[in-house]
Amino acid sequence: MTAVFTRRPGLRGIRAGGSPLHLVCLGLVALIVTAALLAPWLVPHDPNAVDLGGALAGPSPDHPLGVDAAGRDTLSRLLLGARTSLLGPLGVVVFSTLAGVAVGTAAAWRGGWLDSVLSRSTELVFAFPGLLLAILIIAVYGEGLLAPVVALAVAYLPYVSRLTRSLVLAERARPYVSAYQVQGHSGLQICLRHVLPNIAPVVLAQATVNFGYALMDLAGLSFLGLGVPALTPDWGRMVFDGQTAIQHGYPLSAVLPCVLIVAFNVVGERWADRVARRTP
Amino acid sequence: MTMTMTTSPRYRAARAGGLRRLAATAAALASLAACAGPPRNASGIDFELSARTPRAAGGLDSFTWALYAEPPTLDYTVAFDYPQNMVLSNVCESLMRWTPNLTTEPGLARRASHPNPTTWVYDLREGVRFHNGGTMTADDVVHSLDRQRDPDNAAAWAQVFQNVTDVRKTGALQVTVKLKKPDSQFPQYMASAAGVVASKAGLQAAGKDYGTSGGLACTGPYSLGAWHKGQSLELDRFDGYWGRRAKSAKVVFRFLPDASARTNALLSGEADGSYLIPTESYARLRGSDVGTLYFGEGLSTVNVGITNMRGALGDLRVRRALSLALDRSGFVQVGLGGAGTPTGAPTTRAAWAAASERTRKRAFEGLRPGAPDIARAKALVKEAGATGKTLTVATSSIGQDVSLLATAVQDAGTRIGLDIRLRSIAPNAFTALFTDPGARKGIDMFPLTYYNSITDPLDLLTNFKTGAYLNFAGHSDKKYDALVDRATALDDPRRRLATAAEAQQRAARQLPWIPVAEWPTAVFLNRRITGAPTTISYMYYPWAADVGAAR
Questions:
Q1: Which residues form the ABC transmembrane type-1 domain (chain A) (predicted)?
Q2: A73: DSSP letter
Q3: What are the chain A neighbours of B423 within 8 Å (beta carbons)?
Q4: For residue B25, how many other CB atoms are within 10 A of its CB?
Q5: Burial, B241: exposed, middle or buried (Cβ in 10 Å; 0-12, 13-18, 19+)?
Q6: Which of B139, B172, B358, B462 is deepest in the core (most CB within 10 A)?
């Protein structure tokens, strides 16, 4: 089976295979997820405590990753920021995957007019770039994580539904489905108990790829000062705040969140490759 | 979101590349850690104000100037912000002129006389030519000033003319202005964009398009050249100029909104110079051998503007507590790149240039801020019963002076028991905080930088009067109003400033704004050019005419 994933053109190069880069990224991701879970007990400082006198100071025993341009501890912000930065994409992926699978399966199984309606309406969503949709919704509903998550989930839904539809169409033509039908199983039963488990690995792989993209999109939104409220630590916001640090010539506080975001992408792409059986 | 379907056959090549990338990443991280931060308390720079830059040695064909925003229009009646005035000051001239030393001298008027307290008579220069042809007469002056007074024009300078009852031609080259009551500020504003003279014929020919397309029909050393919207604007030397000929035949303004792009343009030579340098770039520009960074008198103060006194900030003790807890030195060090002076006074010292030593001392007595006193501030908040009260500060990514001040206020407030929230405002919406009460809804304070348009502290102190345009929170103190009115009516600068000193002391006690720091202007000139003034005079003085070759 060869699944066709949707990917962004700029990221084709990040195909890490079994290289040390992938292992390092996997390690980083595991570390960050654990740290994000334990963050409230791990953070050494209040992430919003300002020390202007010590701004941009380098790593020290008190601040292992240094401090940013406002004198806030980078490690504390990175750890607490992981929670918002990972929770958002998780929401996007869960919603877009559940809804996308439902829409895609219904369209493929029923076919006919339902297929036409569902497929055309999800394709309509392609006309609206996800980020623009999110910016629009934030402009209407104001700050907060929920609005951009819902907007991005809607924008990501067609990618999942289209993939699901093609997979279900292929499954449906296989003899075991006809066998179940002959035995009198209902369409819903066959889909839930047999078709979905068979296509799950591929859909989940797409979800992983989407997670990486959603992470970047949400970070991009908070980089633009949208979405996440000002005092909530967040990776996108850290990169934004880090711009001045870069101008000062001390880019550490801005580069670290970027490294983590890229790590998530590398891991997602790698899993997608494995499922698509493109790697050894 | 853009996604394309790909099935890349290049994964093996990518695998080998992965190792190389990993090594590169590791090396990059190692080097990052090595240059992660400066030693403690060293992020700022030493700064010294320069009165001027070295005089130009010769002429130039052209020089390029970086500007952080494109002026929406160059109509002088609505020129109230940096980008418009920085361009306009070279094209349009006023009746009086603000010099690089921030004093006032005759401009298009060769003499201003004051026969009685409510009359100003301007005798105009002879033979001053407009860019569009024709010679300046009293009719042009009357028409230009009337545009500022016309309510239909919604001029930004209308407030300057609120005391004016009549602008009349009293001779071929004489204009007489009648005032309702004595007003020491009006004649000074005639050196700003409020006093600009443009050709009546030119204004009438341009109609509604004046300022956005075609020429400006003014008298300055440069005329408006090609304007490539969104990219650049050119000024061409005006050969019929009445004064000293401009040194460069052409000036090209390039619009570079991104701070780092602007700094890089200066470092790469894409732009020869710029005013309003991003504070985070001071050290980089100073460290480069591409040119020189100068600081000059800015007549500017950074403040925390109070926009709502109906909440906790209505209690003077809470405002005082915030002022006590604010880390002004830390803010100057980081937010202003070290180039600034912490202050407890709303006006700059330089605005008091005309005052006697005694007056100046009285104006600033006891206003030097000490180190943050958290314990006292906390006690004040408790005394006011404001512990735990929520206050919202607006912040924006316009520049470090704004974002870091908001952060500093949030930190100070949190330390003294207040619940301070930050609200992000988009950069282009930030100006609306000054002009639109709707935009200030739900906001209690915002970082507010104020620059004087004249060398007089009353320019700022008037804003705290009851009902003044920038008195956002509706602060009202009858005694203060009376003091400012009394000072404004005094023509003699020494007596005027003596009264203004009392007003400043009162304002500093009542804190309608919380003063934070004095902020000098910065100008960067690369090694090719020199001669630009260092002071904020660039807003109304034809500064580009002084810029020429360095060698």
A1: 82-268
A2: B
A3: 143, 230
A4: 15
A5: buried
A6: B462
Whole-angstrom distance, CA of residue A58 vs CA of residue A233: 20
The pLDDT mean for chain A works out to 86
In angstroms, what CA-CA distances link B226 with B90, B214, B252? 15, 9, 9
Q: Which residues of A touch B14 (CB under 8 A)?
A: 13-17
- Is residue B33 a part of any domain in this protein? no
Q: Is residue B40 included in any domain, yes or no?
A: no
DSSP helix/strand/coil, B175 = strand
- A230 at the B interface (CB within 8 A)? yes
Classify residue B214 by its DSSP letter: S
d(CA B430, CA B394): 9
- Point out the residue among B1, B28, B35 whose CB comes nearest to the CB of A217: B1
Chain A residues touching residue B333 (CB < 8 angstroms): 52-53, 55
Question: In terms of Cα–Cα distance, which of B119, B121, B130, B196 is closest to B157?
Answer: B196
How far apart CA B551 and CA B538 sit, in angstroms, is: 23
Long-range contacts of B407-411 (CB under 8 A, 24+ apart): B407/A50, B407/A70, B408/A50, B408/A52, B408/A70, B408/B326, B408/B327, B408/B330, B408/B331, B408/B335, B409/B304, B409/B322, B409/B326, B409/B445, B409/B447, B410/A48, B410/A50, B410/A231, B411/A48, B411/A49, B411/A50, B411/B327
Confidence (pTM): 0.84
Rounded CA gap, B503 and B462, in Å?
A: 10
| Residues B377, B512 within the same domain | yes
> CB A67 to CB B37 under 8 A?
yes
The residue type found at B428 is N
What is the model's pLDDT at position A13? 54
Whole-angstrom distance, CA of residue B35 vs CA of residue B33: 5
d(CA B539, CA B98): 9
Residue B230: HSE in the Cβ half-sphere, 13 Å Cα cutoff? 0
The C-alpha atoms of residue B194 and residue B157 are separated, in whole angstroms, by 6
Interface of B with A in 250-279 (CB under 8 A): 259-260, 263, 278
Per-residue pLDDT, averaged over A213-226, amounts to 84
Residues in chain B: 551
Same domain for B240 and B366?
A: no
Which residues on adjacent β-strands are paired with residue B254?
B66, B232
Of the listed ranges A72-81, B239-248, B506-515, the one predicted with least confidence: A72-81
Residue A228: DSSP 8-state:
S
Report residue A148 as tokens: 């951009």
> Considering its fold, how many domains does chain B have in total?
2
Q: Is residue B57 part of a domain?
A: no
Domain assignment present for residue B25? The answer is: no
- Rounded CA separation B241/B243 (Å): 6
CA-to-CA separations, A39 to A48, A84, A171, in angstroms, rounded: 15, 11, 43
What is chain B's mean pLDDT, rounded?
91
Report phi then psi at B434, rounded to 5.
Answer: -80, -30
Q: Is the pLDDT reported for residue A140 higher than 90? A: no
Single-letter amino acid, residue B93: E
Whether residues B422 and B485 fall in one domain: yes
Give me the residues of A, 99-118, that contact B with CB < 8 A.
none
Domain that includes residue B151, residue range: 63-255+527-549
State whether A250 and B37 contact (CB < 8 Å): yes
Closest alpha carbon to B157 in B444, B454, B441? B454
The least confident of A77-81, B45-49, B439-443 is B45-49
The whole-angstrom separation of Cα B468 and Cα B486 is 16
Domains of chain A from N-terminus onward? 88-232 (1.10.3720.10)
Residue pair B168/B178 in contact (Cβ under 8 Å)? The answer is: yes
Q: Do A68 and A241 touch, CB atoms closer than 8 A?
A: yes
Q: What is the pLDDT of residues B259-284, one digit of tens each?
A: 889 999 999 999 999 999 999 899 89
- Pairing between strand B63-67 and B250-255? parallel
Q: CA A266 to CA A212: how far, in whole Å? A: 8
pLDDT > 90? residue B427? no
